[in-house]
Specification:
It is a single chain. With 139 residues, the protein is an alpha+beta fold. It contains six helices and three strands. Helix 1 crosses helix 3 and helix 2 packs across helix 3. The longest helix has 16 residues. The radius of gyration is 21 Å and the shape is elongated.
Length: 139
């Protein structure tokens, strides 16, 4: 008999669907980079950090959190504003990745809807496994 072990983590913006908090501290920078390369992801690929840094500079101001270089400004804008400080408005989330971690004392966290093969019920039966069981033939 072939057994498949399935474990699925689905990103969940809806807190009612979230049933697991995942520590993403070691991956937050990769998450930022991936989102920055997706030009359809709102402010991510559009240079908003550089725009803000330049606007503040014209007004004789600066935000140290943005850093000194355009690429750093874009990265830090996305990491700190989109995923944390202004995430409700910029990322349409109920809670930021920083706020989410606080009760668990993590660096950064993400809420997921988690499903594993031990939680299979009538609505989520592994149909691939059932099909193999019913249709596989011996050579």
């Amino acid at each position: 008999m072939i057994l498949f072990s399935e474990e699925c983590y689905y990103y969940s913006r809806n807190p009612q669907r979230a049933n697991k908090i995942v520590d993403i501290s070691n991956y937050i920078d990769k998450k930022v980079e991936a989102n920055m390369s997706n030009s359809t992801k709102g402010p991510a690929g559009q240079g908003k950090g550089k725009e803000l840094k330049d606007k503040l500079s014209r007004d004789g101001k600066q935000l140290p959190i943005l850093g000194n270089y355009d690429k750093m400004a874009n990265f830090n804008y996305f990491k700190h504003f989109v995923f944390d400080i202004d995430s409700r408005r910029l990322n349409s989330t109920q809670i930021s990745n920083k706020e989410l971690e606080e009760p668990y004392e993590l660096g950064w966290a993400e809420q997921c809807h988690y499903i594993n093969d031990l939680e299979i019920n009538d609505q989520s039966i592994n149909k691939l496994e059932l099909y193999i069981k019913e249709h596989a033939i011996t050579k």
